[in-house]
Amino acid sequence: MKLSYKGKSAIITGASGGMGLEISKKLSQNDISVLMLDIKSPSKVFLRKNKNCQFKKVDVTNFKSMKTQSNSNCFFYSPTKT
Fold it and tell me: What are the structural domain ranges in the chain?
C-alpha cells in the first residue's frame, strides 16, 4: 500500500536553512502545503519556485513572542489549492 500525502499540510520550524529548507522543498514538490516558521526569511527565489510554501517570521524559542504572534493571526494559514 502506497501512502499519499497530496493535499495535506505541514508546519516546519527552522525552515529557512539546512534540513528545514530541504524538507520544506521536498514536501512542496510532493503537493503538500507547507507553513515555514523561522526567525530568518528564506530567499524570494525559493518561495517563488516552491508555490506550496508560505513563510511566517516567528521565534519559536521565545514563548512570549510565540503567544504575541499567535494572537496577531500569525498562524492563520490558508493552504494553496492545487
Answer: 9-71
Q: Smallest Cα–Cα separation from 69: which of 38, 32, 43?
A: 38
Q: How far is CA 31 from CA 8, 34, 41, in A?
A: 8, 9, 22
Please answer whether residues 35 and 70 qualify as being in contact, where contact means their C-beta atoms are separated by less than 8 angstroms. no
Q: Please list, residue by residue across 18-42, b when 16 or more beta carbons sit within 10 angstroms of its beta carbon and e when fewer do.
A: eebbebbbebbeeebbbbbbbeeeb
- The pLDDT value recorded for residue 3 is 76
Helix, coil or strand: residue 79: coil
Backbone angles phi, psi at 37, to 5 degrees: -115, 130
This model's pTM is above 0.70 = yes
Q: Which residues on neighbouring strands pair with residue 55, listed in sequence order? A: 36
